[in-house]
Design a protein that fits this description.
The protein is of the alpha+beta class and 757 residues long. 13% of the residues lie in helices and 28% in strands.
């Protein structure tokens, strides 16, 4: 969720137009402002300390379609631009304006070429607010709508594209792509036209400008998308355009032989420009043509004149075997400096118009060894399953302070719920169908200890909320918490499911989130099972809940090297070390998954693939959210700088464990003692059944937790050689029931501790 906090001022240069008319409040004719011709790549460098987690560079591009015209009666069509604000992740941080796009004049379906560069971490959420604004003279700009996107949400969506409806009308599109691994330099380009064909009519001359366009093509090709747009030259069929500087990565991903397109248009004040011809070329061909080469633009098979290449050269490229590590530009370091004109491809042009048909948005094949982002954007589907410990050592769930106790206070979660919402909330973003198998272990049904039983009435539940509801519902069934702690069966079932899914989809990869309150009873059996499933497309995240001594579980961290396994598949994290920091928990638990996934696929020669069944017509457009998609108030200083209004309550992302799991929210500042919204603690779920893959329907729902006899307190003596945290199997002195208890911290061998059961 998001909760408002006060914002300090953040400044950003407000780009001026090439022509100003102080006598007009708004100028809509072709004699006025025209385009903002110098497009920018806004580079963002985090000020936080680096993490061990794998980071990758992503580029965010924006477009919109069907925006509402807010220019006013008789004032033409709106001139939209977008401002990107990084929302703070808690009350100790501040939101930050990252940058703004260029203005697209007279357009309600803008395709901005400015893009924004992010550090991406799999285990960290990053929320951004996109404000679309109609630029008006004398600093009276008008909001056209806002939307909040989470970077992982966008990347996990099909095509790495996410769309949201805006309150005032229209749709905003966000697209992510992997940033090229090295700086391929800037293309310094100077073009001129000669004897271009006039398309203006009998009594007028065309006003030509040109665009450079690229593709996101995979094996099947793809549509061209503009990445640079020149100024137009009025009434001139022999135009000499101003020198252009274009980022080579933006134009062709650093591949100098990749096909690009040059398109010439006759500028129209309405924004509906007429084609004057196009031609295809490459950066290498442009460079070879520098000084004397020419190209012929064609329109419907007819020559439309000549384009001369007066200059084309690449400057500032890194060596071919080096990667860009420092992404800070002078513009990013000094907010008073206008960013250099570095174009980055926007969202594909078709997606700004909802009548775009089924043109595919292909995935470019990686030029180096594929990375996690290559797989996620290359048709890899992550799936999640959950296994939960119901052994008796968790304590009586009816008693406050025990590990499975559910608070009656909305938003107050136990450790299991916190781990599910935190880790599950991240992983769910990358699961295409949002359906998750949930199993339990360590409980008795019908007098038999079950080491893998279905949790919930269905084999799979929907969303993180469904996991929570199923988990709570177990305690309304005739369950008897028992032991010992054995999760080998849960691991084997998860591995079998992972292999089964991969037979249908080779790029399927599964993650098992396993939650337990203590060390495994049989370490050697667990090791053998882990070694046996190492060939499955599976990673296992084990989270230790509670304050037991988990030192016996540390064998998981170095098990790969000791066991001879060909890859690491397990990560163990002790929840208590991250109990008050949700981001710290997700980073720790998910740290190794990107490398594990990449190693699995590359070792088998499985490469990222183009999603041939995807088209922009299949993009799911989310509705506007009153709680989340707020308009941020902007101020303009006398020197033209843009600031967030420091007097308003702006948004930070509520990153606490108690935040509502249904999505990001923006709400009034909470009053003293108020709690975050939560889910229904009285949700009823059917009882589990033996065998996670069983198809037999479960029995009827029990009304409540089974009535247990009054607890008895008795003493247990620690056997020789047994360390704190070790689980002991004992018999209840009164009922004879088999129990599993953990030796408390500080109790040595021969010592005595009390047990109430």
């Amino acid at each position: 969720g998001c909760v408002p906090v006060s914002l300090d001022y953040y400044t950003l240069p407000r780009k001026r137009h090439d022509t100003e008319d102080v006598n007009n409040t708004r100028e809509r004719s072709s004699r006025g402002r025209g385009y903002l011709y110098e497009e920018s790549l806004i580079r963002i460098q985090s000020t936080k300390q680096s993490s061990t987690m794998t980071k990758e560079k992503l580029q965010l591009s924006l477009s919109a379609g069907g925006l509402k015209n807010v220019a006013g009666l008789g004032k033409g069509t709106s001139d939209p631009f977008a401002i990107v604000t990084l929302l703070a992740s808690g009350p100790g941080e501040k939101p930050k304006v990252l940058g703004r796009t260029e203005v697209i004049k007279n357009s309600l379906s803008p395709k901005w070429t400015t893009a924004f560069l992010f550090d991406y971490e799999f285990g960290k959420e990053t929320h951004i607010n996109i404000s679309v604004i109609d630029e008006v003279r004398k600093r009276s700009d008008k909001p056209m709508g806002s939307a909040v996107f989470e970077i992982g949400d966008v990347l996990g969506s099909r095509g790495s594209i996410k769309a949201k409806k805006l309150k005032k009308g229209g749709t905003l599109y966000a697209r992510l792509q992997k940033a090229p691994p090295r700086n391929a330099g800037k293309l310094a380009l100077r073009l001129r036209g000669a004897k271009l064909k006039n398309v203006e009519g009998m009594f007028k001359k065309s006003d030509p400008f040109f665009e450079l366009l690229r593709t996101y093509d995979g094996q099947g090709g793809g549509s061209y998308t503009p990445v640079f747009r020149s100024k137009h030259i009025k009434n001139n069929l022999n135009p000499k355009w101003e020198p252009a500087t274009v980022d080579v990565n933006a134009l062709c991903d650093g591949d100098l032989d990749r096909r690009i397109q040059v398109a010439v248009y006759d500028h129209e004040s309405s924004g509906k420009h007429d084609s004057m011809g196009t031609f295809e070329t490459t950066v290498n061909e442009l460079v070879k043509a520098s000084g004397s080469g020419t190209f012929t633009p064609n329109k419907k098979g007819k020559a439309m004149g000549t384009i001369h290449v007066d200059q084309a050269q690449i400057n500032g490229a890194d060596a071919a075997d080096s990667a860009t590590t420092n992404v800070t530009t002078s513009a990013a370091a000094d907010p008073s400096v206008v960013p250099m004109p570095v174009a980055v491809a926007p969202v594909a042009a078709q997606m700004a118009d909802m009548n775009i048909g089924s043109m595919p948005v292909p995935v470019a094949p990686p030029q180096r060894s594929p990375t996690f982002v290559d797989y996620i954007s290359g048709n890899c589907d992550l799936t999640m399953s959950v296994a939960i410990d119901f052994t008796g050592s968790n304590g009586d769930p009816r008693k406050p302070g025990t590990l499975h106790h559910f608070s009656s206070v909305s938003g107050q979660l136990n450790g299991y719920e916190k781990a599910i919402t935190a880790v599950g909330g991240i992983l769910a973003k990358y699961d295409s169908d949002q359906m998750f198998p949930v199993v339990g272990f360590g409980a008795k049904y019908d007098g038999i200890v079950r080491h893998c039983f279905q949790v919930g009435s269905d084999r799979e539940v929907h969303g993180v909320q469904g996991i929570l509801d199923a988990y709570r519902g177990v305690f309304r069934t005739p369950l008897v918490m028992s032991g010992p702690t054995v999760f080998t069966e849960a691991i084997q079932v998860a591995a079998a499911q992972a292999k089964s899914r991969q037979q249908v989809s080779p790029l399927s990869y599964s993650i098992l989130l396993l939650l337990t309150d203590g060390a495994v009873t049989d370490v050697e059996a667990t090791k053998q099972v882990l070694a046996s499933v190492a060939d499955a497309p599976l990673s296992i995240v084990i989270v230790g809940i509670g304050n037991a001594d988990f030192s016996a579980m540390q064998f998981l961290d170095d098990f790969e090297s000791r066991s001879g396994m060909n890859r690491d598949i397990v990560q163990f994290v002790q929840f208590s070390k991250h109990e008050y920091d949700k981001t710290s928990l997700t980073r720790a638990t998910l740290d190794e998954i990107p490398d594990q996934l990449v190693k699995f696929f590359t070792s088998r020669g499985i490469m990222p693939q183009e999603d041939k069944n995807f088209s922009t017509s299949k993009i799911v457009v989310e509705d506007y959210s009153e709680d989340c998609d707020i308009d941020l108030s902007m101020d303009y200083s006398a020197d033209g700088e843009i600031t967030l209004n420091g007097d308003q309550s702006a948004a930070y992302v509520d990153n606490s464990y108690g935040a509502n799991v249904s999505g990001v929210h923006v709400m009034a500042p909470p009053s003293a003692g108020a709690t975050a919204p939560g889910y229904n603690p009285h949700a009823v779920s059917a009882p589990p059944i033996h065998g996670a893959l069983a198809a037999v329907p479960p029995p009827a729902v029990a009304a409540s937790v089974p009535v247990q006899p009054a607890p008895t307190t008795f003493q247990v003596q620690v056997p020789p050689g047994v360390a704190p945290g070790t689980q002991l199997q004992i018999n209840h002195p009164t009922t004879g029931q088999q129990l599993v208890v953990a030796v408390p911290p500080g109790v040595p061998p021969g010592g005595v501790f009390s047990v109430q059961a």
